[in-house]
Amino acid sequence: MTAAADVLKLLGERGGTLAVAESLTGGLVAAELASVPGASRTFRGSVTAYATALKHELLGVDAALLAERGAVDGRVAREMAEGVRARLGADWGASTTGVAGPDPQDGQPVGTVFVAVAGPDGAVVAPLRLTGDRNEIRRASVAAVLDLLAERLRRSTVAGPGTPPDNGLDRSPEVKDREEHGGKGCLQP
Q1: Residue 186 is assigned to a structural domain of this protein
Q2: 72 near 108, Cβ under 8 Å?
Q3: Are 21 and 94 in contact (CB under 8 A)?
Q4: What is the average per-residue pLDDT within 33-55?
Q5: Chain segment 5-18, per-residue pLDDT in tens
Q6: What is the dihedral of CA 134, 61, 146, 144, to 10 degrees?
Q7: Does residue 174 surpass a pLDDT of 60?
Q8: Total structural domains in the chain?
Q9: pLDDT band of 160, cuts 50, 70, 90
Q10: Per the domain annotation, does 104 fall within a domain?
Q11: In the prediction, which pLDDT does 177 show?
Q12: Would you state the pLDDT for residue 164?
């Protein structure tokens, strides 16, 4: 079973839905999900916000945060996941942002990637330091966000419809640690 099929199966078992926000992966996560037969039962859609301004305009990422930190940032990834979840009316949101190369961006070296998942029980961000060429970094980012989502779905006690989107105000210490410091449980290549 592919990672995308696993995620969709877990969502289906829980009666949940998913929306995806992508930057460096440019739609690859959505393509992986949509390639699974029956994906439309749980996959609501995606936003490819490649340009930094679109992260604010379409996903609601804080403009001051983008101006201060740039698009390659863990908090930006979290806000992308939360924003796509709210805007597309999904139970779960996932996002990717980073530098696939060939040049650094926002002061970050090639291979710096953040993936995030937001759901009924909060949000989590995983910082990644990937190696390889542009295509390898993008593919590894897809795998990482799908793995993080599957992990969160397996651990979640709430996943079904009718659960209001997380407002970002009440996070457990574990989630805060993972977001801000890359604490235990983060995906690493």
Answers
A1: no
A2: yes
A3: yes
A4: 98
A5: 999 999 999 999 99
A6: 40
A7: no
A8: 1
A9: low
A10: yes
A11: 37
A12: 39
Range of the domain at 131: 3-181
Write down the pTM of the prediction. 0.84
Which pLDDT tens digit goes with each residue over 105-140? 999 999 999 999 999 999 999 999 999 999 999 999
The C-alpha atoms of residue 113 and residue 131 are separated, in whole angstroms, by 11
Look up residue 24 and give its two tokens.
Answer: 């460096």
The answer as to whether 188 is a domain residue is: no
Q: 34-40 long-range CB contacts below 8 Å, 24 or more apart?
A: 35/4, 36/2, 36/4, 36/5, 36/8, 38/8, 38/12, 39/4, 39/8
Structure tokens at 85: 């979840």
Q: What is the pLDDT of residue 157?
A: 76
Distance CA 71, CA 99 (A): 9
CA distance 161 to 180: 29
Scanning the structure block, which residue is given the tokens 């009924």?
120
In a domain, 98, yes or no: yes
CATH number at residue 165: 3.90.950.20
